[in-house]
């Protein structure tokens, strides 16, 4: 199953995924399959001829068949709705409405909207609001397809609303973008400038054959090997790498390189290089041997401010998490505070 078109936004983190704290807070109907399936981190699966009390069991969200009175004209109310609270607020750059395994029961059209709110209002209040911003205008989708839609907006949002027209099933909803956290957290204690929830993100990497590099920056500890980033076995010379854009320009004081659950496929060594705002580089951690299945912690000598970090792994392999602790510059803190107002 392929995306409907090539897209670059899938390198950005999925702000809606459950492992980042996303939640499906409301749906008007989930007669056949639960709304919570929309944001599960793993790809949807299917087992044919597996029936429960409500019919074929689907790994997705599926609503009942809508019936209009005979002769009634279709209207904007003829749709089903699910609302997702993003795990981390942010700027949405692209959406994937994945109808995997839905073939005769997928919605022919979808639309996606977004909203920014403060605090934690009840789901019913969110559902009743009428100030949603359109991210994806009503558009046709295919069945058993990861339907990709680029988004042109620089607004910060906290919630996303998926409409399916008129009904049917969707396996997964992916909301890729750039995290813009609550500025009140910027000075609340030790600050991981690489964390997705703080606004860090993977900007590029050499290889993402087995798993997505954004996993490195997810909250909490990895639960298994698949929660991390793993490259293919390198047969050529050189080494694999990942480049992280920090939440803002800052000075790093310590790093954690975690190989938990990677036993026979962890890198033999790693190095960290800081990238200044002008593009020049500074060594943060020289090439250092790593152990398998170990949380390595390294003090870093505070140096000048940097805005990106490149992690080189030698020659290849897998990591569970990368943490980069430090402090934002005053200018970066002011910029982040202004961007999330």
From TrEMBL:
Broad EC category: hydrolase
One function term, GO molecular function aspect: allantoicase activity
Record-listed E.C. numbers: 3.5.3.4
Signal peptide as annotated in the record: none
Allantoicase domain span: 21-179, 199-327
Pathway in which this enzyme or protein is active: Nitrogen metabolism; (S)-allantoin degradation; (S)-ureidoglycolate from allantoate (aminidohydrolase route): step 1/1
Annotated protein name in UniProt: Probable allantoicase
């Amino acid at each position: 199953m392929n995306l409907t078109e090539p897209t670059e936004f899938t390198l950005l983190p999925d702000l809606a995924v459950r492992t980042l704290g996303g939640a499906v807070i409301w749906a008007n109907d989930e007669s056949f399959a639960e709304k919570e399936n929309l944001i599960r981190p793993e790809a949807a699966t299917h087992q044919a001829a597996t029936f429960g009390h409500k019919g074929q069991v689907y790994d997705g969200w599926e609503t009942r068949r809508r019936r209009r009175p005979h002769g009634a004209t279709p209207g904007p109310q003829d749709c089903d709705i699910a609302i997702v609270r993003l795990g981390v607020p942010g700027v949405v750059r692209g959406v994937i409405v994945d109808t995997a395994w839905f073939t005769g029961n997928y919605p022919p059209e979808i639309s996606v909207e977004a909203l920014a709110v403060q605090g934690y209002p009840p789901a019913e209040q969110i559902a009743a609001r009428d100030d949603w911003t359109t991210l994806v205008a009503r558009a046709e989708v295919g069945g058993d397809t990861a339907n990709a839609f680029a988004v042109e907006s620089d607004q910060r949002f906290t919630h996303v609303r998926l409409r399916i027209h008129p009904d049917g099933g969707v396996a997964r909803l992916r909301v890729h973008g750039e995290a813009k956290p609550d500025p009140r957290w910027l000075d609340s204690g030790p600050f991981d400038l690489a964390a997705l929830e703080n606004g860090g993100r993977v900007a590029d990497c050499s290889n993402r054959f087995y798993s997505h590099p954004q996993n490195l920056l997810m909250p909490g500890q990895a639960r298994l090997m698949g929660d991390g980033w793993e490259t293919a076995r390198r047969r050529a010379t050189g080494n694999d790498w990942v480049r992280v854009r920090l939440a803002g320009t800052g000075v790093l004081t310590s790093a954690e390189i975690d190989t938990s659950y990677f036993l026979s496929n962890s890198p033999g060594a790693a190095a960290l290089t800081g990238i200044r705002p002008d593009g020049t580089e500074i060594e943060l951690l020289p090439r250092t041997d790593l152990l398998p299945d170990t949380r390595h912690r390294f003090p870093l000598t505070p140096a000048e401010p940097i805005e990106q970090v490149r992690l080189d792994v030698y020659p290849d392999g897998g990591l569970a998490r990368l943490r980069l602790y430090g402090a934002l510059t005053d200018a970066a803190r002011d910029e982040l505070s202004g961007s999330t107002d």
